[in-house]
Amino acid sequence: MSALPMAPPPKSALARYRILSPTASVRVSPLCLGSMNFGDAWTGWMGSCDQVTVENILDYFYSQVDGRTFLLSSAFADGVKGGNFIDTANNYQFEESETWIGEWMKKRNVRDQMVIATKYTTNYAAGPNAPNIMANFTGNGTKSLHTSVEASLRKLQTDYLDLLYVHWWDYSTNYDFLIKLLLIGDSGVGKSCCLLRFSEDSFTPSFITTIGIDFKIRTIELDGKRVKLQIWDTAGQERFRTITTAYYRGAMGILLVYDVTDERSFNNIRTWFANVEQHATEGVNKILIGNKCDWEDKRVVSTEQGQQLADELGIPFLEVSAKSNINIDQAFYSLAADIKKRLIDNQKSETGAGGASGGAGGVPIAQAGGSGGKCC
């Protein structure tokens, strides 16, 4: 018998654990269980999901066995290994979500088997027993972070968090421009890799395409102005033709990406461009990106073909390589610079060169939407 036997094939697809991030050695189930509805506090908005129901959902997600049998037999312990990844937030259901997840983990003694993601920014203390002064229970400052993490650890009945991330933009912090960018193109052209290279300066050939939509943030400086880029990646959506008006709405710049080793992805750019023209805001800035330019031996789309298409569409063009980090920064910086210039020109034409107000240098911050209301 081998000293290091191979693990048997998983009986549940939820047990095919994968790397959470190219730079984080954490393994999670392919589906993350969201818990925004775990609680009774928001019943009027989301419907009821009491604690018994929540624990049954968690039991089944974890073991693929109905949790109601847990105390009556060994079925739970003998169940198929399932999901280990749960997402919550400090304010969900006025703190019931984190509290009930913590109680479930303690009852089942499974804390170290689970990967728990939670979020801060929203005022978690704004429930029925809200304190008199709540000014610093919200936002992304260090005080809000400290109080929120302390509260989350207490509710989850743990002494560590696996993943903590920002829930919202902190709209009270200083920047001169907020610009929303959107990456579109066929599946497999490297949109996610381009985003990862620009936002985190990392690349992995084993990166697994996410079915969903995600965004990353990077703040850059252009002409002495702080420009915060909110970059949305539509990875996987194109497979099911679910990129709709909602994803184009509010985008101020769009990167149309093809793979220089895949002629079909290049030919489909015209279709993507037509979708942009139909759904995106009028006047949105665009740039054509030919990715994987380092693969010269596999290239089927020439640089000249890319430039000809860009000229036909009337947009800038760059070839890049996420793997070799060729022209990635230049692509995002040049698009952001074009958008910034357009915003300034529009403001001047609307108010006059000296009449603008409300933002640094007379240019108002370009907001991509408010942070009010409830969301995931």
UniProtKB/TrEMBL annotation:
> Keywords for this entry?
Cell membrane, GTP-binding, Lipoprotein, Membrane, Nucleotide-binding, Oxidoreductase, Prenylation, Protein transport, Transport
Q: How does it sit in the membrane?
A: Lipid-anchor
Q: Does the keyword Lipoprotein apply?
A: yes
Q: Name one GO cellular component term.
A: plasma membrane
Query: Entry's Gene3D superfamilies?
Result: NADP-dependent oxidoreductase domain (3.20.20.100), P-loop containing nucleotide triphosphate hydrolases (3.40.50.300)
Q: Where is the NADP-dependent oxidoreductase domain?
A: 31-178
List locations, semicolon-separated.
Answer: Cell membrane
Any GO molecular function: GTPase activity
Q: Does the keyword Zinc-finger apply?
A: no
Q: Please give the biological process terms from Gene Ontology that the record holds.
A: protein transport
- Matching NCBIfam families, A to Z? small_GTP (TIGR00231)
Kindly provide the name given to this protein in its UniProt entry.
NADP-dependent oxidoreductase domain-containing protein
